[in-house]
């Protein structure tokens, strides 16, 4: 049986997975320049060209969640490896493997593994290919402030959801002007919650194992297997 702690971790891992893919795959979509900031579009195009040239991407990140009103201040670290439509995410002690067809959620603390098929038509499905079109509509964007972070020039682009139902007030995307890599992603919620994903390490074209995205059940002999499909 899933514990309350496991559900909390899975929910946070799902949310974090979406944010990671928003960072990487935001730049693989085709943006309309109608009613948009042309300078922001030019910068996005430059990052798009850079990201598309990579065979794989490995990211180490820091994730923070703050809400002053609720006195919440949480920090977590994790990493994700992405290649094509496959990924491995490690976050809050949970490992999520997506082999292109199924997602394997591994929780060592509970010795439990949840296996589920991914339906691309499901709005909550988390796959690299689905994230290719995440920002294709529903957002207006424009150039924002520039900050100097330890000698790095970080240009922010502000994205504002156009739907009144969206619980996010705004999103700020920080781009390293020199490398054209993403520095961070900041989401401001209408309820005062601020979440920040900061990229500590952005590596590309790494030597990966041929079984990098393969779930091997024999590695977990005593785990309970929960198949949802």
UniProtKB/TrEMBL annotation:
Entry annotated with the keyword DNA damage: no
Superkingdom per UniProt: Bacteria
Pfam families: LolA
CDD domains linked: LolA
Keywords associated with the record: Lipoprotein, Signal
The name this protein goes by in its record: Outer membrane lipoprotein carrier protein LolA
Source species of the chain: Flavobacterium frigoritolerans
């Amino acid at each position: 049986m899933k514990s309350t702690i496991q559900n909390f971790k899975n929910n946070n891992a799902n949310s974090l997975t979406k944010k990671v893919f928003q960072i990487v795959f935001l730049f693989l979509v085709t943006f309309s320049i109608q009613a948009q900031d042309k300078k922001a579009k030019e910068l996005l195009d430059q990052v798009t060209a850079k990201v598309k040239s990579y065979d794989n991407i490995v990211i180490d990140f820091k994730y923070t969640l703050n809400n002053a009103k609720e006195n919440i201040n949480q920090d977590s670290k994790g990493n994700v490896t992405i290649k094509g439509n496959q990924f491995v995410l490690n976050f809050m002690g949970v490992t999520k493997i997506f082999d292109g067809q199924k997602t394997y959620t591994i929780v060592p603390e509970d010795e439990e593994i949840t296996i589920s098929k991914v339906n691309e038509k499901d709005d909550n499905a988390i796959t690299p290919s689905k994230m290719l079109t995440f920002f294709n509509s529903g957002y207006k964007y424009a150039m924002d402030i520039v900050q100097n972070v330890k000698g790095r020039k970080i240009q922010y682009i502000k994205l504002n959801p156009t739907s009144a139902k969206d619980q996010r007030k705004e999103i700020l995307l920080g781009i390293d002007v020199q490398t054209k890599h993403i520095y961070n992603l900041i989401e401001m919620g209408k309820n005062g919650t601020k979440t920040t994903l900061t990229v500590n390490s952005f590596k590309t074209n790494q030597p990966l194992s041929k079984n990098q995205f393969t779930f091997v059940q024999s590695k977990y002999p005593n785990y309970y297997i929960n198949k949802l499909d």
